[in-house]
Amino acid sequence: MSRFIEVPARMLPQETLDALLEAFVTRQGYDTTDTTGEGMHGWVAQLKKQLERNELIIAHDLELEMTEVMTLAQWRSFGRDIADDEEEGDI
């Protein structure tokens, strides 16, 4: 059984999805200074579009019970890191 599962955005309550996307914006270091009047809501709206285009994924770690938003590049890199740790016996 895989330790990680992909969670479709449509399965999450709207406020949970928004909170995950806001955490992603903060973690990625997006410039959240507001020059358009949209602020964080504008970033969240853009990220929702990226989710729809399958440019981002929501991954849940069954072992740690944590859910994160990741770019596909982050997901692929994360998967390689986990595989390396498992080979070395770190996990």
UniProtKB/TrEMBL annotation:
Q: Cite the InterPro entries for this sequence.
A: UPF0270, YehU-like_sf
- Lineage in the entry? Bacteria, Pseudomonadati, Pseudomonadota, Gammaproteobacteria, Oceanospirillales
The organism sits in which domain of life?
A: Bacteria
Family of the protein in this entry: Belongs to the UPF0270 family.
What is the protein named?
Answer: YheU family protein
SUPFAM superfamilies tied to this protein: YehU-like (SSF118001)
